[in-house]
Design brief:
about 230 residues, alpha/beta, Molybdopterin biosynthesis moea protein, domain 2, 2 domains, seven-stranded mixed sheet, 7 helices, 14 strands
Length: about 230
């Protein structure tokens, strides 16, 4: 059953299914671009605050106080895929009602810009059994899964029906004009968070900025998960 949700309700719901990833100590150079997981002090002086992005200044400061490793949260691993019988990879010829698959390219690079590790699935499943097999195969390397479909959400039923076999998924219609269909939940043995975005590229990117980017930032343990207003 499709739920009606406001934007703030949907944001709160998707943030609830994501948590900061477990921290671990990382060698200095490997820690570059990650987030400090806990406060770092030199004696009684706080030198690096939890939630800070580790850049060259933080690396240099850590080295200057004798640290060879930093407590960090790992970069979230995000799997991005699209599904639908009418989707075609760029570079191929279109036939009849086919359309070029755009969203996985758009969303994979958007995920990387946030600071996560993005895996784009190169196959485009077009039936339930194939889509389920692809998703189950990808869960081993996913902290978050993002799925979208065709431009007019024609494949939303396929995606939603398949995800229901793997976990508990909520089908959502947002209170935004022309926002498209959305979904979210947890799937697989590890209860991996999944978000379904609309097929229209503009709507998908808008929803990524509003909802998925904060999810990834929260998983990273960032101090600020939203863009400055």
């Amino acid at each position: 059953m499709t739920e009606q949700m406001r934007v703030d309700e949907f944001l709160a719901a998707v943030l609830e299914i994501t948590q900061p990833l477990d921290p671990f100590d990382m060698p200095l150079l490997d820690a570059h671009g990650a987030i400090i997981a806990s406060d770092v002090s030199a004696g009684d002086r706080l030198v690096l605050k939890a939630g800070t992005l580790i850049q060259s200044r933080q690396i240099g400061l850590a080295a200057s106080i004798g640290l060879s490793r930093l407590p960090t949260r790992p970069h979230p691993r995000v799997v991005v895929l699209s599904a639908g019988p009418d989707l075609v990879e760029p570079g191929m010829d279109l036939v009849d009602e086919e359309e070029y698959e755009t969203n996985s390219w758009l969303l994979t690079t958007a995920v990387r810009e946030v600071g996560a590790v993005a895996y784009r699935v190169h196959s485009i499943p077009d039936d339930e059994s194939e889509l389920r097999a692809v998703i189950e195969d990808q869960l081993v390397r996913a902290d978050l899964v993002i799925i979208s479909g065709e431009r007019h959400d024609d494949s939303f039923a396929l995606i939603n029906r398949t995800l229901q076999l793997l976990g508990e998924i909520r089908d959502v219609e947002l209170a935004i004009a022309d926002s498209g269909r959305h979904g979210f939940g947890k799937i697989g043995p590890d209860q991996t968070p999944v978000v379904v975005l609309p097929g229209d590229p503009m709507a998908a990117y808008t929803s990524f900025e509003l909802f998925v980017r904060p999810m990834i930032r929260q998983m990273m343990g960032a101090l600020e998960i939203h863009r400055p207003s």
